[in-house]
From TrEMBL:
Similarity comment text for this entry: Belongs to the ABC transporter superfamily.
The keyword Transit peptide belongs to this UniProt entry's keyword annotation: no
PANTHER family to which the protein is assigned, alphabetical: ABC TRANSPORTER ATP-BINDING PROTEIN (PTHR42711), ABC TRANSPORTER ATP-BINDING PROTEIN NATA (PTHR42711:SF5)
Name of the protein in its database record: ABC transporter
GO MF terms held by the record: ATP binding; ATP hydrolysis activity
Annotated ranges, domain ABC transporter: 4-229
UniProt keyword annotation of Acetylation present: no
Organism lineage string: Bacteria, Bacillati, Bacillota, Clostridia, Peptostreptococcales
PROSITE patterns reported in the protein's UniProt record: ABC_TRANSPORTER_1, ABC_TRANSPORTER_2
Entry's transmembrane regions: none
UniProt superkingdom: Bacteria
Keywords: ATP-binding, Nucleotide-binding, Transport
Length: 294
């Protein structure tokens, strides 16, 4: 079953582009990453899914229901962490969380305690006295306290220190194992790589790639670094499929895409003293897509 499904979802802000013809679906139990540079349209997509803003054209469904028609009902089953959190500063953390919990028909007391303990959040402090990162933790607890079926997170880790990021990811993994579907936006590639099953890359309001993380990595360039016994002609490896060829002394670096046997045969004809073959990291893969589309 698809938990999220969009159909040519489009949102314009007057004349300026927000998102254009966004099509993707997220399956039940999946962790789906939404990645793109600043201003690409990540928050616009998320806000449209949550019917905080309405589409200009196209539509979206969550749990099989149209988000505009069934917004309030759908939202009861969603945990949402906005990219920036704002609160009434004068409240105590625990009072704010109890107030949030009162919107759901279940007792969230134990869950609040548990989440606060994991995230190292002092429930008795006033919101006013919290740092930016601690306010973010309040948002995280608020988003997870009712054990939602779908968790939507907009740039969730900004403001959290590395230890807290780790704990937060552990929490998400726990919720996912219990069945929650997770959709999160990010421009931090390593966190997408760690958590997600699939990822959509968004650029200038449009999805330019939607792929399994594993396929993204497999179908791509491999990085070669070869050290030879004697210096080669600089164009020796300049064959079809080779890119970014650079040589310095006896060391040659390049990226290769194509039938791996072709390049291995080419390598076998020279005396080498060392060889390194690496998968490009996601950052390199994404930069490749961004620049290709420009
Ligand atoms: N309220 C608004 N009025 C006008 N234009 C807007 C509004 N909100 C967003 N936009 C524009 O829509 C586009 C997408 O913005 P959006 O905030 O969705 O991007 P984003 O991918 O979330 O970026 P970031 O990582 O910087 O948060 C941008 O060009 C932005 O300027």
């Amino acid at each position: 079953m698809n938990v999220i499904e969009t159909n040519n979802l489009t949102k314009s802000y007057g004349k300026s582009r927000g998102i254009v013809d966004i099509n993707f679906s997220v399956k039940e139990g999946e962790v789906f990453g939404f990645i793109g540079p600043n201003g690409a349209g990540k928050s616009t997509t998320i806000r449209t899914l949550l019917s905080l803003i309405y589409p200009t054209s196209g539509s979206a469904k969550i749990f099989g229901k149209d988000v505009v028609e069934h917004g309030p009902e759908i939202k009861k089953e969603i945990g949402y962490l906005p990219s920036e959190v704002f609160y009434y500063d004068n409240m105590k953390v625990i009072d704010l969380l109890k107030y949030s919990a009162s919107f759901y028909k279940k007792d969230c007391t134990e869950k609040i305690k548990y989440l606060a303990e994991v995230m190292n959040l002092d429930l008795n402090k006033k919101i006013d006295d919290l740092s930016f990162g601690n306010k973010k933790k309040v948002g995280i607890v608020q988003g997870l306290l009712h054990e939602p079926k779908l968790i939507i997170l907009d740039e969730p880790t900004s403001g959290l220190d590395p230890l807290m990021q780790q704990k937060f990811f552990d929490l998400l993994e726990e919720e996912n194992k219990k069945g929650a579907t997770i959709f999160f936006s990010s421009h931090i590639l390593s966190e997408v790589q760690r958590l997600c099953d699939r990822v959509a890359i968004i650029k200038e309001g449009r999805i330019i790639k939607l792929e399994k993380i594993s396929t993204l990595k497999e179908n791509n360039y491999k990085k070669f670094k070869i050290e030879t016994i004697s210096k080669l002609d600089k164009n020796y490896f300049n064959i079809a499929g080779v890119n970014k060829l650079e040589s310095k002394g006896n060391v040659v670096n390049f990226m290769f895409k194509g039938n791996i046997n072709t390049i291995m045969q080419k390598i076998a004809t020279v005396d080498i003293s060392n060889i390194w073959i690496d998968e490009p990291d996601l950052e390199e893969i994404f930069m490749h897509y961004y620049s290709k589309e420009e």
